[in-house]
Amino acid sequence: MLGLLKERRNKRQTKKTFQSSQDTLPYLNAYADGVFQVKKERFSKVYSFHDINYQIAPIEQKQHYFEQYCHVLSSMDDRAAYQISIVNRDIDLDDLKEKIFLEERDDRFNHYRKEYNHMLAEKISEGNNDIESLKYVTITVEAKDYERAKMILARNESNLVQGFQNLGTALVPLTLTERLALYEEIYRNEITRGFDLTETTKQGLNTKDQIAPMSFEFKRNQGRVGDQYFQSTLLTNFPSRIKDDILTELTERDMKMILTINLQSIAPDKAIRLINRQITGMESDSMDLEQDSLQKGYLRTFVPHNLESGLKNAKAMLEQLQDDNEKLFTTNILITYFADSQDELEAHYEELSTIARRHICTLNILNFQQEDGLASTVPFGNNLLKIERTLTTQSTAIFMPFTSLEFNDANGLYYGMNPLTSNLILLNRKNLHNASGFILGIPGSGKSFASKREITNVLLNTEDDIIVIDPENEYGQLVKNLGGELINVSTNNQHTINPMDITIIDDVDPARKKDEVDPFAFKTEFILSVCDVILGGNMAPKVKSIIDRCIRLTYKAFVQSDFDRKHLPTLEDFYNQVKAQAEPEAKDLATALEMYVLGYLDTFTGHTNIDVDSRFVCFNIKDLGNQLKTLGLLIVLDAVWNRIRKNRDSGKHTWIYFDEAHLLFKNDYAQDFLFQLYKQARKYGGIPTGMTQNIIDMLVSDKAVTMLANSQYIMLLNQAETDTREIKALYSLSDNQLNYVRNAKAGSGLIKYGGSILPFDDQFPRDTDLYQLMTTKLDEVRRN
After folding, report:
1. Nearest Cα residue to 261 out of 330, 325, 317, 171
2. Is residue 613 helix, strand or coil?
3. Local structure of 216: helix, strand or coil
4. Which residues does the UniProt record annotate as the domain Helicase HerA central (predicted)?
5. In this structure, which of 241, 433, 745, 775 has its CB flanked by the most CB atoms within 10 Å?
6. SS3 62
7. In the 8-state DSSP scheme, what is residue 622?
8. All structural domains of the chain with their residue ranges
9. Quick check: 200 and 5 in contact, CB under 8 A?
10. pTM of the shown model
11. Helix H or strand E encompassing 258
12. What is the number of alpha carbons within 13 Å of residue 144 lying toward its C-beta?
């Protein structure tokens, strides 16, 4: 229902003796599309926008953001008024815990879930996680009626939307329900779940009844909204130069508050006339002083500093307006904060006032204007204060509303704390277009711990499967304690992986059919690679044809049995087919295969006898000898690929971890596999992650460089100085950002997530069983 929502009172309230709290709210009417009428011929609309990583951006990027923000301000219509508001709201910690805590399950790992939840609860209490900063733009226009207001608002909206997109954020208009929820939380300190506008109207109520507190009380220098104390203040006395992080410092406080910048641009011709009048007035005052000095016989004229600097600033401002295409704005910056007690309110003022003084500003309490101060701060677009200052575009833009992008993904996993805001970092890599990733850092920086923390979180919190390729035997204890399958791949154990294993998908989803790889074609490529390794490389085309023929013969019974796995062939079956061929080249190939089928390297002969269907599988390849290193890697990687394809058919994600990934890139076959896996992982539900300490070793490979550049999840821990130059170039990092990975303590650094980069710090409590599962430090590991 578009159109005016009539603000009706209950029939019993036809006669008013005193002004009600509803009447105190600074608007007249609300409309179903979220537009509010704030005065007789003034209408407003509110838009939310998300933060960007401004504070840690490179200098060049910061300059770009500043220039783009100047463009946004310059696009503002001088016939409209604007508010930019930062609203710090309380978060229900019980709701937050319900969102991020691991649910208990019917397995034997609830002890670990309780430990994990206890850790999360401690992290929540350490930071500012009970406060969330929301950011809004409010546009207010003058119009005769609602219909005209809609058209003018739409025109103003289109001017701003592109500008915010260029900044890397987006303006999203608030619906009526969302706008009411914002006000309800400010005034009532609560949100009514499932507010039904139609039902409210049927009950004879209106939007003001939905958001009004039980009472308002306004005193000389403070007030009360319901049971909340509040105080409205004005930021004044700006110095000629001010740092661009002042709003960040003011709003990153553990308090419920609203900071609002009220803006009204002045038409260029009016702005120039205004400045000229000011200059004329100050020059006249200066001449009067000079004349007075001459009459009194003084040798020189004393001009007060304020007059002298004011005249200088006015002339500079006029030059900016005329020559630099600057605009002039009337502005005020208001801060209203809330508290549960008088003492807390006074403490809030002292905290904010100290920050203002540090920036050579003054935070003035609005004496006898608390009602207007509150109304002008809340994002209604109704500035009732007449206290304003004129600023140019650039002077206005220095009050940057951007700080640091927070990551609080739905169904996100814990990755540490944001040191800039002390908030939890919750990421869901499945939301990324390309979830593939790397964890990079020198020994002791926390690579293995970071991967184990993510693995543990995935195992305890999802139904996804996990596969680890472990070249250093670092994951055995974690696998053992979390019920996984540890597969020791070597010549002296009983574990067998059949290289002829193949995954056949019976009913491929038609939507995925074009992406499906022919399993026999893929297996043929794999067996060709195996034979190439065994023969030492450079296979002749004739040998490849023999292998192709033998593969078809080897799988013939399996195909004819309608893929009955009882007829699945082994490497020995393939060897027998090769040996039966008449060509001399086949005899040479059979001889080369013999050692791997009948000799002491027969590790991969026979059917698979391990639980490759376990949710958590770890291939320990540390004890693979030199003779089997390449072949073993190929066969393990093929088993991984079979599992990924099988899981996709079951609708399951597969997380794959490659520790010491730089070792795999020294092998051409393993490198090719990883390149294809990273390239196709998304459409197969795979989430691969490589860990390495030597990024320089990987950068010699073009394929590795492509993988590092295209992966949208990169965790950068402490880096060697020689690596920082490469990382800086690869990910366009600033010197400020690089400081987070130089001499960084273990478990801290940077995360590249999609197109954003943020610092993180993950200090996991050491007095937990989970820490013992994940640590690789010899002096901390408890051997069971």
Report:
1. 330
2. coil
3. strand
4. 437-583
5. 775
6. helix
7. T
8. 21-104+113-398
9. no
10. 0.80
11. strand 257-266
12. 1
